[in-house]
Design goal:
- By secondary structure, this protein is an alpha/beta fold.
- The chain is 35% helix and 28% strand.
- β7, α6 (157-172) and β8 form a beta-alpha-beta unit.
- α3 (93-99) runs parallel beside α5, α4 packs across α5 and α5 (127-140) packs parallel to α6 (157-172).
- The chain is globular.
- The model has no long low-confidence stretch (mean pLDDT 92).
- Bound molecules: adenosine-5'-triphosphate.
Amino acid sequence: MLLSVEGLSAGYSGADVIRSLDLRIDEGEVVALLGPNGAGKTTTLLALAGVLAPTSGTVRYRGAPLRGALHRRSRRGVSYISEQGSIFSRLTTLANLKLGAGRVEDALALFPELEPLLKRRAGLLSGGEQRMLALGRSLAAKPDLLLVDELSLGLAPLIVTRLLDALRAAADTGTAVLIVEQHASQVLSVSDRGHVLRRGRLAMSGTGAELLASSGELQAAYLSA
Ligand code: ATP
């Protein structure tokens, strides 16, 4: 097991938003963390990335406790992409890629679309191009675990498919992915397993196929949020 999370609680200003969460991620898996607005998905990622200190629970990575801030975790092979994409909008695409821990050529091999945009300021790229930049930069470093927040936010389904396919391919070559999404179906189609969060607790879990097949229950979990 790559990552195991037991009894994780975390929140803001002393009020827990997620409560007693249990999760595990095996090597090379894509795991989706779904749920309605405000369910605690981002909070879970922040706690796993080391941005937010948990109030209780244990997070073990390769059998040892996962501690410390984001940069320390990234040295252990854990990478995090925020909802904003974690890119520097005033820097060029190329400068952003150079800031990554992987090779620029590897990022461009994953997303050749970025090649003609290398000299452009990242802030001037389209939403989809910015996500490709963030994903290409992270994946080029070949992390063991990638935590991704709301990949599809505001993007056309075709671009989302392109990004999800890249994540699936990365998982198939050894990078485990935990992906947070509000919109379930596209992500589930590339996920090995999925969990649905509701009001800070796990409301449903299953394989990607099981969750896709139980769309009625899924909808109920969202509607009763
Ligand atoms: P969304 O799709 O809206 O991002 P989410 O499932 O990711 O939903 P979170 O962002 O984890 O949800 O937020 C869960 C709860 O925590 C919400 O009620 C939110 O208002 C609250 N919250 C989030 N960030 C903070 C913060 N910095 N300070 C205080 N409360 C916060």
